[in-house]
Amino acid sequence: MSDGNYYTISPTGLGIELSVTAFVRSELVETHFRYCALRGSSNCVMEDTIEVILQDRDRELLRPQTSPTLAGLAGALLAGLYGLWTMFALPGFRKVPIRLKVPYLPSSVAQTNNVMKLLEGREGPLADLGSGDGRLVLAACSMGMQCTGFEINSLLLAYSRCRALWRGVAPSQAQFINSDFWKTDLSRYRNVTVFLAPGVMEVLEEKLLKELPCGARVVACRFPFPSWAPSASEGSGLDQVWAYDITADLTATHTPAPPTRCPPAANQSQQILHH
Questions:
Q1: pLDDT along the chain (275 residues), means of 10
Q2: How many CB atoms within 10 Å of residue 58?
Q3: Which residues fall within 8 angstroms of residue 109, CB to CB, at 6 or more apart?
Q4: What is residue 155's predicted lDDT score, i.e. its pLDDT?
């Protein structure tokens, strides 16, 4: 029944009497009745005026809605960014066993400077294992070192070569090669820099002990070797780096001891001083 601008809905038996004016939308009444039925009320009064009900409905319609077009554009953007990251960071991974896969991890300016401090005064060729964009190689070249960067990501390799060319670095001074360092004999290098994931550092320990000459220095960025005692360290936090000198003492932490090119501890100090 109606009373001014107020309306009553009265369920009678199996039927429902709805007495509303012609301009009230039936769905508003039905929604209100369902709400009353859920409360178990037999006589329900719509206490809001028609104007208030319609204003509430307009507010519902005017609420911000997620546009399918915007959602599609956002999804396409995320997919594009992921695809770009995949092309930049992952090419060449199929060449490496899954347990040895490492994503591209660029070193910071502070970290690069810390590495150079630990290489100061060093002689002999340097190998950067997973050289990325070439920043460590080019920094070491500026100190007069002859460097080789190992990188299997074709895009990063091309970028590194372009950077070296732009800076006027001779190919004989900085060489970037598309090669898997896990399958390369590193015995000719007296200095090695690594910025790899923690999961491969233990495996790399055995390879370096087996192949590097006695007195060689390995500098690890951000993630230290799990079994080696560092000879020196620079920086802190994410920019920390560690230097490890290949000596017979390093083999003592491995069981069984891996093969090494270092002589017994009694003779190795003379060789280190000689180099």
A1: 46 43 50 55 53 55 63 72 52 46 78 97 96 95 96 93 94 94 95 92 92 95 93 95 88 63 56 45
A2: 9
A3: none
A4: 92
Residue 75 has what pLDDT?
74
* Residues whose CB is less than 8 angstroms from the CB of residue 83 and which lie 6 or more positions away in sequence, other chains included: none
Structural tokens at position 73: 């554009």
Looking from the CA of 69 toward its CB, the CA atoms found within 13 Å total 0
User: Which CA distances in Å does 113 have to 127, 198, 215?
Assistant: 17, 22, 22
How many whole angstroms separate alpha carbon 273 and alpha carbon 52? 92
Rounded CA-CA distance 141/229 in Å is 27
Please report which residue ranges of the chain form alpha helices under DSSP H.
26-39, 50-62, 68-89, 109-119, 135-141, 154-166, 201-211, 265-274
- Cβ burial, residue 68 (10 Å; 0-12/13-18/19+): exposed
Q: What is the pTM of this model?
A: 0.62
Which alpha helices (H) appear in 63-197, and where do they start and end?
68-89, 109-119, 135-141, 154-166
Q: Give the angle 187-190-196 at the CA atoms, nearest 5°.
A: 85
How high is the pLDDT of residue 40? 56
The CATH number, out of the four listed (3.30.930.10, 3.40.50.970, 3.40.50.150, 3.30.70.1520), of the domain defined by the range 109-274: 3.40.50.150
- 270/219 Cα distance (integer angstroms): 22
**Domain extent listing, the chain:** 2-62, 68-95, 109-274
Report yes or no: 185 and 210 within 8 Å, Cβ to Cβ. no
Largest CA-CA distance found in the chain, in angstroms, rounded: 109
